[in-house]
Each structure stands twice: as C-alpha cells, then as structure tokens.
C-alpha cells in the first residue's frame, strides 16, 4: 500500500498498522509502541496526505511530527497518466519513454496533470485489431525503469519473479509489471498513475517494467550503438593524432638533445684538458704494458664504474689502475670530479692519486697500490677477519673518522664523499685505512651546509634516509654511512645482507640488543673470543654507542665527524643515549652481493679489494 513512500518502511517495522472503519468508510493508522506514555495519532486524508501527530500533554493539543507532502510530487497524480514526477528536476514532470505529453500547451506552462499518451500502439493491440489473434508477445518487450515509485492500483499475484514477465505478455491489457519479495508480482492495466522518482536516499527502490512495442525498444538500442560508435571513432582519431604529434615532438627533442650533447661534449673535452694538465698524464700504452694488457690475472676488483687492475711501472713502482667502463654511468663529469678532488687532497687516510689517462676514448685513474686491497675483503671473510683483532679494527675505525674529518673540515675544500662503504676503504701493508673512490664526491662552498639532487647516487644500505628518499645530502649523510661501516667492522656482518630470526637488519638488530642491554652479542666472535680485558670491552661499547649515534634517523640528531673523533678518543667522557636508528623495521637484503655489479647510479661493489 505504501510502496515508495518515504519513511513508511521504517515506520511499518516499528509497529505501524492500518485500521479500516467500514461504517464511516475511513482508514487510519496506529502504532504499537513499547513506551505507552507516548500518544501518536496518524491521519490519511482524501487527497492521500499522511499526517502523524504526537499528543503534547503540556500544551493540551496534538503537534504535527510528520507530513507526507514534502514536494508537489507527493500530490496524487500530479503528472497524470504515464507521467513521471521527479522533484530533483525542473520541470517536475516528464513522460515515460514511448509516450508524449497529451496537452503540449499545458505542459509548457508547467502543468503536467493531463498526462501522456502512447506514441506507438503495442504489437498485441495491432494484432487484435487486424484480427490475427494472439498476444503478439514476441513483438512486445519491456523497458526497465529503476528508482521509481510504482503506480497505484496494482493487481497482485503470488507467482514467482521469473514468471511475471510471461504472465504480463499473455495479457494484452497488461501495460507494466513489478516484483516485490514480500508481495509477489504486481501487474497494471490501463493508465499508470502516480509514478514517482525519489532523489532521497534511504527509500526502498523498485524496478518497474513498462511494456513497449519492439520498435520503441530498438530505437534506444540503435541510439546507443550510434553514440558508442561515434565515441569510439572519436577516441581512435584523437589517439592517432596525439600519437602522431608525440612522435614528431619526440624526434624533434631527440635532434635538439643531440645538438646540445655535441656542443656540451666539445666544451667538456676542452675544459678537461685544462684541468688534467695539473696532473701527471699517462698514455694508454704505458698503462697497458704496466697491467700486462689489462690481464685478468692483474684484476684487483670491480667498482661501480669499471675494473681495477694492479700494474708495475718501468721504475718498479706498484700502481692500481681504475679503468672506467665505456658502458658505465660515469662520464666525463664524474671522472674530472674525481681527478680534481683527489689531486687537491693530501692525508694519510686518503688514497693517493698518481695521475690519469685520457687516450683513445679511454678514461683511467692511477692510484697508489694497496697490497691488502679493500676493507670488505677482510671483515666479511670468515678466515681473514680473524687477522683483525680489536686493536687493528679500532685503528681502522679511527683512521676512517680522521679521513672524513679532513674531507669535511680540515682540507682546503669541504667535500662530501657520498659513497663511503667497506669496499671504498683500502688497506696498506700495515692495515692502515685509506678512503678511495671520489667519483660521487661533491665540493661544498664556504656557506653551504646542505644540497639537493634529483640524481641519487651511492650504495643502498649506506645511504642516509634523507638522501635516499629526498635527495638531500650534507656532512651528516657521510656520518650516517660511517655509522653503518663502524657497526659492520665491529660485528663482521654486512648491512645489506644481514637479517636475524626476528627479520631485522643489522641496524635494527643492533638497536634491539642495545635496548636489551645485551650489546656484546653484536660483536664479531673473532674479537669477543680473544678480547676479554675490561679496557677493550669499554672501548668496544663506546664504539657501538658512537655507531648508533651516527645512524640516527634524523640528521640533526647525528654528531659531526669532529665530535665523533673526540668521542672515539675519550675526549668526551659522557656519551649521549642514541635514538632509534633509521631502517630498523625491515632488513635490506640483496642476494649474491659478490656477483652483483652496479648499474647506473647505485653501486654494489664486488668484495675483491684493490
């Protein structure tokens, strides 16, 4: 009775029921509330208006709580026969598809009460007129109208949903049907009155199926086909045009880039010649002879940008030759950068540059030879790590810190290394550390403390969070890398591949042990089994504390290298308590590091030293 009426479903569930007074021919509604103190009176008048009133004992009268007339669409038959009322549109009234306004003049004035008429008769009606007989059910179909208030005066049937359509087609006077799970099939014949569309949410929605001749249904299909075909054709044309323009623009950009690259290359090659004149220059033939034509037997290791070979000059001096790969990411900029930076640096903990070679499109750097190769070949090797007792390891830790301090503060230039790691620390005959590989280094001006870059270079596992994620680097970026390296030296474990049973990386594992007061478990067994005196234990604990301070997540919390040197030398007796390091939640695991070389900007260096 109240299908589609706003709020009526909820009211019915709360205890609403209809009472018919046959003597006075009236209907009224009542509620069964659990709270008997509230009096509710409901009225349904002759216009179909439903009013709910509540008794106000204080005022002594009835107060309106609800009225079913919210808009003109609530007036019965406002849009006439076969009209749809939608209060969200202007005008409210429109005709069902397949029908037209009966009185155009009245409709133009906003009065749709005259309703609509069918433009094309149903096929079954035409068949009956022609005397062909039959319902003509094969030529009539149904238009599904969603979110509609069903018309008044339906004929109910208890048959299941699947047979509603068939039963309607069998009866030529049936013009529409609907289905409700609680009611069953509902059929309409004659005019459809009071079809209403609600824009309000929360109202039960019904599907009303309007009977139309197949010609009216095909119009909609044909229109859809035309629209879809037109849209697809338009998209194809636009896509082809855009692709053509993009190809033309890409070719033009490529030509412009080539011209720009040629000009830039000429400029760079001219500038490099001026800068390289300040260094001893080797020719290709000299270095080929020194390395036995770059023999594999002379290979010391493989860095991010090429191979490193051992060589012997004519005067018997041993050298290490870094030969840049033509396919590597390092070009003239990085090469010149490394030459200029190292040539102006002199410190016992920095590798010494003898000269360079630019010949036959080859770019090579000539360093002093380090017989013990790189640090990673010792601390990560189960056999060689036993050679490094605590005294030697502390000497390496301290030497690296002094080399970094020189780069940051004590040299003529302020230099950020940006790629400090175990494979970039070389060891001389006495196992003294020397920082190498300055291809990524950046020179800072006098007032410059931080810089940004869109091209992040370095090695995962050693990068500070602000550099890896935002491209921001400073002295504190090197401090973070130093902290990782310090913990690797103490633990003998590689940060980029270590993970324990709790699925923590080296930094997370160190932080867990620190909080548990069990930090001695972090120490390499090669040290812990032989270094038992209290002096060494205090020194090891101090170094771990310094390492954790260096790898704190925020750059402002990390110490400077001058402070690090002072803490290592016990010049600062009371060390701060470290905060949680960066990258402690999940380990950074890179499989088979020994056979992984760097590509483009992130370097993963082989463990072989040089």
TrEMBL record:
Residues that coordinate or bind ATP: 322
GO BP of this protein: recognition of pollen
Catalytic activity field: L-seryl-[protein] + ATP = O-phospho-L-seryl-[protein] + ADP + H(+); L-threonyl-[protein] + ATP = O-phospho-L-threonyl-[protein] + ADP + H(+)
A GO MF label: ATP binding
UniProt keyword list: ATP-binding, Cell membrane, Disulfide bond, EGF-like domain, Glycoprotein, Kinase, Membrane, Nucleotide-binding, Receptor, Serine/threonine-protein kinase, Signal, Transferase, Transmembrane, Transmembrane helix
Keyword Iron: no
Broad EC category: transferase
Signal sequence segment: 1-15
Domain of life: Eukaryota
SMART domains documented for this protein: PAN_AP (SM00473), S_TKc (SM00220)
Protein transport found in the keyword field: no
PANTHER family: G-TYPE LECTIN S-RECEPTOR-LIKE SERINE_THREONINE-PROTEIN KINASE SD1-13, RECEPTOR-LIKE SERINE/THREONINE-PROTEIN KINASE SD1-8
Protein name (Swiss-Prot/TrEMBL): non-specific serine/threonine protein kinase
């Amino acid at each position: 009775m109240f299908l589609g009426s706003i709020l009526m479903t909820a009211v019915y569930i709360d205890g609403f029921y209809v009472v018919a007074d046959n003597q006075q021919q009236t209907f009224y509604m009542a509620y069964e509330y659990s709270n008997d103190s509230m009096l509710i009176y409901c009225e349904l008048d002759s216009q179909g208006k439903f009013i709910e009133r509540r008794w106000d004992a204080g005022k002594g009268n009835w107060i309106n709580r609800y009225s079913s007339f919210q808009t003109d669409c609530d007036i019965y038959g406002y849009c006439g026969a076969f009209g749809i009322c939608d209060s969200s549109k202007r005008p409210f009234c429109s005709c069902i598809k397949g029908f037209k306004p009966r009185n155009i003049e009245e409709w133009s004035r906003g009065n749709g009460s005259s309703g609509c008429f069918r433009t094309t008769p149903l096929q079954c009606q035409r068949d009956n007129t022609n005397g062909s007989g039959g319902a003509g059910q094969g030529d009539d179909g149904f238009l599904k109208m969603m979110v509609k208030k069903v018309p008044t005066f339906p004929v109910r049937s208890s048959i299941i949903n699947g047979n509603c359509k068939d039963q309607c087609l069998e009866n030529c006077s049936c013009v529409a049907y609907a289905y409700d799970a609680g009611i069953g099939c509902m059929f309409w014949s004659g005019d459809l009155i009071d079809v209403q569309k609600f824009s309000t949410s929360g109202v039960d929605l019904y599907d009303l199926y309007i009977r139309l001749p197949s010609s009216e249904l095909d119009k909609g299909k044909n229109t859809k086909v035309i629209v879809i075909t037109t849209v697809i054709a338009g998209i194809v044309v636009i896509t082809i045009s855009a692709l053509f323009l993009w190809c033309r623009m890409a070719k033009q950009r490529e030509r412009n880039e080539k011209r720009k690259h040629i000009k830039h290359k000429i400029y760079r090659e001219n500038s490099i010649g001026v800068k390289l004149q300040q260094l001893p220059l080797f020719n290709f033939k000299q270095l080929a002879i020194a390395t036995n034509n770059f023999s594999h037997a002379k290979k010391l290791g493989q860095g991010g940008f090429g191979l490193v070979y051992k060589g012997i000059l004519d005067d018997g001096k041993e050298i290490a030759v870094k030969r840049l790969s033509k396919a590597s990411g390092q070009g003239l900029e990085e090469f010149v950068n490394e030459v200029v930076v190292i040539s102006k640096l002199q410190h016992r903990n920095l590798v010494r540059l003898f000269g360079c070679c630019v010949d036959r499109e080859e770019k090579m750097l000539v360093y002093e030879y380090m017989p013990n190769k790189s640090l990673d070949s010792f601390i990560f090797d189960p056999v060689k790590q036993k050679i490094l007792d605590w005294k030697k390891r502390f000497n390496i830790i301290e030497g690296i810190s002094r080399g970094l301090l020189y780069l940051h503060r004590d040299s003529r230039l302020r230099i950020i290394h940006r790629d400090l790691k175990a494979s970039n620390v070389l060891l001389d005959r006495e196992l003294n550390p020397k920082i190498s590989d300055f291809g990524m280094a950046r020179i800072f001006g006098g007032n410059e403390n931080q810089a940004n870059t869109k091209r992040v270079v370095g090695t995962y596992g050693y990068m500070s969070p602000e550099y890896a994620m935002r491209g921001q680097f400073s002295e504190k970026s090197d401090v973070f890398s130093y902290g990782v390296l310090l913990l690797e030296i103490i633990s003998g474990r590689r940060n980029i591949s270590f993970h324990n049973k709790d699925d923590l990386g080296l930094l997370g594992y160190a932080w867990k042990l620190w909080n548990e007061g069990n930090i001695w478990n972090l120490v390499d067994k090669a040290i812990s089994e032989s270094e038992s005196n209290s002096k060494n234990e205090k020194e090891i604990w101090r170094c771990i504390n310094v390492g954790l301070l260096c790898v704190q997540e925020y750059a402002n919390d990390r110490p400077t290298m001058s402070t690090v040197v002072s803490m290592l030398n016990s010049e600062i007796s009371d060390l701060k308590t470290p905060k949680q390091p960066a990258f402690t939640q999940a380990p950074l695991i890179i499989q088979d590091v020994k056979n992984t070389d760097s590509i483009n900007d992130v370097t993963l260096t082989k463990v072989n030293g040089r």
